[in-house]
Each structure stands twice: as C-alpha cells, then as structure tokens.
Amino acid sequence: MVRKEGRKPTKALWIFCEGKTEKLYFDKLKFEERINRLRIKSFQSGYRNADGIVKEASDFINKADFQEGDLIACVFDRDANSNEQLTKAKATGEKKEIIISFSNPCFEYWILCHYGYFAGRYEQKEIIAEITSRIKNYQKNDPDLYSKTKNKIQDAINNAEKIKNKHTKEKTIIISRESNPLTLVFELVKDISKFKN
Fold this sequence. Notes:
single chain; alpha/beta; five-stranded mixed β-sheet; 8 helices; 15% strand; disordered N terminus
C-alpha cells in the first residue's frame, strides 16, 4: 500500500509512570484525544525511585517492541529521591533521549496548575487540599482526572512553564529537591499535542 503524500508515520510513545495516578491520567488522555499519529502506551513502573524508573525505560529501548523513532518518557515525583538519584536519572535520560517529566513535590502539582499559578513551597498533602477545594469529590487515583481538568489544560501549561522559568531565572537546578514547586508534565503534554494534526 502506498502512503498518502504528506502523511506522517505513526509513532509510539512509551510512558513509564511512577504511580497509578499518572498512568490513569495518560490512559484517559489517550482515550479522549484519539491521536492517530501517536500510539500512547503507559505503564506503572516496577520502581519507585527516579534512577530505577529511568533505567527501566532505558533497558526497554533495547526490547523488540521499541522501534526506531519511537518516543519514551518517564513520569516521576521528587518523593524520597536524593539529589544524587535525580541527577543520575537526568543524566541517563539525556544520554538515551528519554523525556523526563519530573514533578516536585508530586504529580498533583500539575493538576493544581490547571487552577492558577502557585509559587509557594508545597508538600503533597497541601497540594491535595488545594485540589480538593477546586475539584468536587476529588480522590487520588481518579480515572477521570484528565476529563475533569482538560478544559483548563492551556492554563496548566502556561502556569507550569511560568514556574519553570522562575526557577531557571533563579538558577535553581530544575531536576532537584530544591525546585519546589515544579512540574515538567507540561512539556510531555506539549510533545503529545504535536501529533494531533
């Protein structure tokens, strides 16, 4: 069969997620957006530490399912990761061209960015409280989290990018314990949106 002129080939995006919330979010994004030129496959990693998750993704690149031109991403939180673990994860990611979607302190900061610009230091419990005041009946691991927030996704991208730029201007190491609050999920979401057309 001859491919239509100008049609770009389909790629796969393999997403290794630290937790269930992240996996459910990207599964719902895949289902609702139906991006024809990108097959999104998300997994809950067998690791909880950043360097373990990135190593798992790195090892996957050598498996038969991974094809040349495919994209691979790791979505993980600061949690108890040391700066040494985060630096190692970043170095492996850069070497293997893995998209690093780091959130500090947690993935839920990405959800909070849908509702405004929050620049103060937070811990997960405080972020959950902020989200709960904005999303009726919010629960962690909600399979409909993407559906409930997608109409504010551009706000989230803008707010997350603004906080990253603030850290960059202050010369804070982005993938570190010191970059609280921060989420790089917006970069992955922007990468995915490039395949919509």
